[in-house]
Design brief:
Strand content: 15-25%
Number of domains: 1
Structural class: alpha/beta
Largest sheet: 8 strands, mixed
CATH architecture: 3-Layer(aba) Sandwich
CATH superfamily: Acetylglutamate kinase-like
Number of strands: 17
Distance between the termini: 24 Å
Radius of gyration: 19 Å
CATH class: Alpha Beta
Shape: globular
Strand order of the largest sheet: 3-9-2-1-12-16-17-15
Mean pLDDT: 86
Oligomer: single chain
Length: about 325
């Protein structure tokens, strides 16, 4: 069985916890033990969040006055390498019998995506108002209020294609545990001549995980975080955990747009496009979630048909995949 696992920020850090090196190593060691329990018996492709790391690197870059601030695509590449290295090392220590490889992954976005002009994704540490005002003025950051303090907000466009997909598939075929598309992948766009260029954005890692799982023909998508299941009517006297649901049922829920909503959307997309299963739950229940005995299990709506088609025309696909000598079919999602 081929399993795509997406580790959320909450699976790697406790809420409100600073992403210092020792804390990250400790959490990633525990996460790797859970992932290894699955990887011993199944093929695994692993992806992960990186918003805290990108945010921290951005603040560090902004405080170095003699160097221009690094753009978001470079910060994402740094964060993907940082978290990927920690996961790769921790997994290799658990899985002595398997190879583990981290692959820096570029993900194509549409530079005309409306989300580019509407920054909303929060990243990095919370800031005092005076610091937020200064960074907004001097570095042209967008900031948003959050519980009396402020955080940086950035654009989060839709993931459309994975540049390194052929390499990921070859690694899977070779039996390698692949860590890829971390933080949603490095956002890039295609110029008119087919050249890739970075985009100042941060892609939602759950949506990229759904795209990745679809493209590699995964049997199941696991979205692992710090809560045991999706909760309906959270915060009310009628709050209840959802054990099993269809995409139609989940899409009707009112969920936190910054935490659970992207996971539910990703699960629904994968199930609707493939007719296969997705699940959401806590990292400590990973093996039980895969077995279908824990978490929120998402299965197709009864009688639903499944589709997978491209948003862009074959010309763009041919331009992208000619770099790899591959056929252009099935590489951009109609998400």
């Amino acid at each position: 069985m081929l399993v795509v696992i997406a580790l959320g920020r909450a699976a790697l850090l406790d809420p409100g916890e600073n992403p210092d090196a020792d804390r990250q190593r400790s959490h990633i060691k525990a996460a790797a033990a859970a992932v290894a329990g699955i990887a011993r018996h199944h093929e695994v492709v692993l992806t992960h969040g990186s918003a805290p790391q990108v945010g921290l690197l951005g603040v560090q870059s902004a405080t170095y006055p003699s160097v221009d601030e690094y753009p978001l695509d470079l910060l994402e590449a740094e964060a993907e390498g940082l978290v990927g290295y920690l996961l790769q090392q921790a997994l290799a220590n658990q899985l002595r019998e398997k190879e583990v490889v981290t692959l820096l992954t570029q993900v194509v976005v549409d530079p005309a995506d409306r989300a580019i002009a509407s920054p909303a994704k929060r990243i990095g540490p919370s800031l005092a108002e005076v610091d937020a005002v200064r960074l907004a003025r001097d570095r042209r950051w967008f900031v948003a209020a959050e519980e009396g303090r402020f955080r940086r907000v950035v654009s989060s466009p839709e993931p459309l294609a994975i540049v390194e997909l052929p390499t990921i598939k070859r690694l899977i075929d070779a039996g390698v545990v692949v860590v890829c598309a971390g933080g949603g992948g490095i956002p890039v766009a295609l110029d008119a001549d087919g050249a890739l260029r970075g985009v100042a954005a941060l892609i939602d890692k759950d949506l990229t995980a759904a795209l990745l799982a679809t493209l590699v023909d995964a049997d199941v998508l696991l979205l692992l975080t710090d809560v045991p299941a999706v909760v309906a009517e959270r915060g009310s006297a009628f709050a209840r955990s959802i054990g099993q649901a269809s995409p139609t049922e989940l899409r009707a829920l009112d969920l936190d747009p910054a935490t659970m909503a992207p996971k539910v959307m990703a699960a629904c997309r994968f199930v609707e496009q493939t007719g296969r299963r997705a699940a959401i739950g806590t990292i400590t229940d990973a093996e039980a979630i895969l077995a279908g005995t824990a978490g929120t299990q998402v299965a197709p709506d009864p009688g639903a048909s499944h589709h997978y088609s491209s948003r862009f025309g074959a010309g763009l696909l041919a331009t992208l995949w000619s770099r790899h000598g591959e056929e252009a079919s099935g590489s951009v999602s109609d998400f």
